[in-house]
Amino acid sequence: MTLIRRLTRVLAPLLILAVPAPLLAQDDCTIGVASQADVPAFAMPDDPWIFRGTDIPVDPQWLMGELPNGVRYAVRRNGVPPCQVSIRVRIDAGSLHEEEGEQGFAHLIEHLTFRQSRHFGPGEAIPHFQRWGAGLGFDTNAITSPTHTVYQLDLPGAFRQRLEESMMLFAGMIQEPTLSAENLAADVPIVLAERRERLGADMRIAVATRELFYTGQRLAQRAPIGTVEALQGATPEAVRAFHQRWYRPENTVVVMVGDASPQVLAAMVERHFGGWQVPGTPTPAPDFGQPAMPEGADPGNPVGETAVIVEAGQPRAVSYAVLRPFVEVVDNLEYNRGLLIDAVAQAILNQRLEQNARAGASYLYAQVRRDKVSRSADGTFVDFAPLGEDWRAALADVRAVIADALVNPPTEAEIEQAAAQYDIAFVDMVGQARIEAGSKLADDIVNAVDIREAVAAPETFLSVFRSLRPRLTPDTLLRHTQDLFKGNVVRGILLTPVPGEATAADVRAALLAPVDTAALARNDGPAISFADLPPIGAPADPALREPLGPGLVSTTERIVFPNGVRALLRDSDNEPGRVTVRVRFGQGRAGFAPGEGVYAELGTRALVSSGVGPLGQNEIDRIGAGRKLTFGFSVGEGVFTFEGLTRAEDLEDQLYLFAAKLDQPRWDVAPVERAKASALLGYDAQDNDPMSVLNRDLETLLRGGDPRFARPTPDDLRSATAGEFRRVWSRMLAQGPVEVAVFGDIDPEATVAALSRTFGALDPRGDARPVLDPPGFAAANSVPHILYHGGDPDQAAAVIAWPTGGGSAGLPQSRKLEVLAQLIANRLLDGLRETAGSSYTPFATSNWPLDMDGGGYLMALVQIAPRDMDAFYTEVDKIVRDLSANGPSEDELARVIEPMRQYILRAQTGHTFWLGQIQGGAFDPMRVAQLPSLAADYVLTTREEMQALAQRYLLGHGGTRVAVLPRTGEAAALVGR
């Protein structure tokens, strides 16, 4: 029963900002029934196919139908965002449908479908949809899984003619792609580049795990990316045969959700898919197989195959699975009640595992999950990471928690905590139903079809969950926990960086060894009330309340408290029941002293979990039961940020947690030691592929070695102490100024009162914006700075970056630099992917820090084979010279600007869009002053402006080049020849 949200159209007016109306505003684009052509012939409102055979209440907002040729469809009106229609075409064929010599064909056809088809010439599809505002990857995409292939289009500005044409084009792509030798020659290298970028330890681990867990099944040997041999051997005839075998009407489901009458959408599906005929009889789906014990195994001993994977540099990890046959179920209400009881049982078990990790168990983390995998197995999976080398002790600790849960039922306190969290989640889903995006609704239908289940409205989920609350007894949950660990076979795998550390027999023996459940931690103490917590201080009323400014920000209130804390409030009911709280304070990375950088890393991992006032992490878990509270923390370049997603009735509690962390921080040692262990365990893995090396080292290089922005080394981590962590973060938490932004569905007066009792009650914080020292930037170089990785010899990465600027005064220019970055990204995509086939994911991005006057950069990055490294730099130099000399063409500028325009149109209906634009504005008036030109800075960008920016920033500096090569002497010689 997939979650489906009921919604009504959001009638929020689109703000025009400072752009002429024709450029940004759109007329009402809801498509209504206009003639007999808009009346479908095969809609079945009284017999929707996805609800057949189930007692799940039919969601009447879906209109479903079946065409005589076998195509099924599901359509629905939705106005979120306005003027958009989301189209999904699902083909019931993925990698599990491939024969031995076809491995990779399902995914290859996905690429070929976008290459050329009935109505599109070579390479025309993506640019066409970009001109209509659909961004590649964001709005236009496709997915191939083991069980299906799904084509996706989220079409903005979906007026009738454009939508009709899009359906015609999309149908032509699916039904008649041009599977020619020329297109194979163009797309096979792209797929091989995609495969190469995925190579490395993670892929080898995934392959080995899949081969072990699904031994004897198709899933063990068929990944969607395919094999080099099959892809290089693909012929037009073989690919066409696969397409004809599986791309058939009876294997197709079309979903349309958007700003149009369901009758109109259904009629469009019928017009463009009703005439589709494929010769021959349908091919039955292959038998995916079932998990089973090996022949001759002891039927009384469920532990079957085990294995050891050796990957140098990877942290130790253990996974084991209790596997059962996949059974297609009757998706009814009682079946879902059982799933919900399973979910509560899993939540209690996972909470116990986490509590024991916090209490000093020998594992860093552990999790139990149940999953139905690719219609091939129904499994309960246990995954954990040992804290050190003794994986046997960690396995014993994890198995002890599970063994205890299989004998001793949960307490009422544990049940109440887990049930309360599910209840609040379902309540939130009901509240958000009317603003659920059409794209999400379309994806829900597709996923339900894939797992052969129905869909349900969120009200149904809440009702079903609350109806079974009396059944959530200790004995019932004990039985469901026991059922989770019953199966046909148990298979386990150890990942280790050390050859010879263990054998498969050792893993098997450890899975069978007895365990001791005597000393286990449980978080089943009494409930905790916020009313019992110490106050922050004496409440203080605001010293000033005023509109943030005229026009666009007149609905945002600026509040100043006597202690220097400032707040921004925006009451918005277009996301009912949802409130976002964002607290900005301090100086971020720029505020660390030399030698303190390691504590920035540890702070992101341990600051929140080290506690608040009298509350440790376990107590925070308990006090949050039945409330919607979150506690995010991030370290920015020039600011620290707490963020929480809550609701009006829990808003004061959310504010209390954040204010208490500033005023009454707790300094539990265990979270710091755990954070150190986590960082150390994962450090060596950062050497195993080019992108991991860049994630670790690139910022340091680009920042000219500035120690504030350096990633800590293992020696840094080992020498870090809990005492020094407390000293550094005590200073950071005390830094002012403090800005609290509360945006969403709020009562402004109640919110101000809650702020007065929390942030207004803090000790004085100061109200002057700090002047931050921005980092420098590395010098330009013609020969790249070389980094090395220890992974696959055919993998490399290359970067070129140019310094730009920072600060809110330059906001208009920063927006135009985003346009320039996307122009470069599109040219790299056209040159390196679509033409040369040498890279799958080249991209470019612009970073402009607003909290400091400097430190920004524009960067282009590519994953590529070492032999093609020079081609990247040659292509970038060519792009820079041309953009500096000529600027972009009008067409390519339109392909960038229109998706940006459509993004603004869609995003501005949500309060987090405005929060992102206004944050910092309580202290920085330039952010507010620059807001009216937001859309114009993107939409009215000219070719001449792009040319001038390219000349100033790209030619002016020349670029800092960084390359990551495999650790071989020959590879380095490939660069700068």
UniProtKB/TrEMBL annotation:
Annotated protein name in UniProt: M16 family metallopeptidase
InterPro entries xrefs: Metalloenz_LuxS/M16 (IPR011249), Pept_M16_N (IPR011765), Peptidase_M16 (IPR050626), Peptidase_M16_C (IPR007863)
Top-level taxon of the source organism: Bacteria
Keywords for this protein: Hydrolase, Metalloprotease, Protease, Signal, Zinc
Signal peptide, first to last residue: 1-25
All copies of domain Peptidase M16 N-terminal, residue ranges: 84-197
Pfam families for the chain: Peptidase_M16, Peptidase_M16_C
PANTHER family: NARDILYSIN, ZINC PROTEASE PQQL-LIKE
Protein family (similarity comment): Belongs to the peptidase M16 family.
Organism: Alteraurantiacibacter lauratis
Domain Peptidase M16 C-terminal, first and last residues per copy: 235-421, 721-898
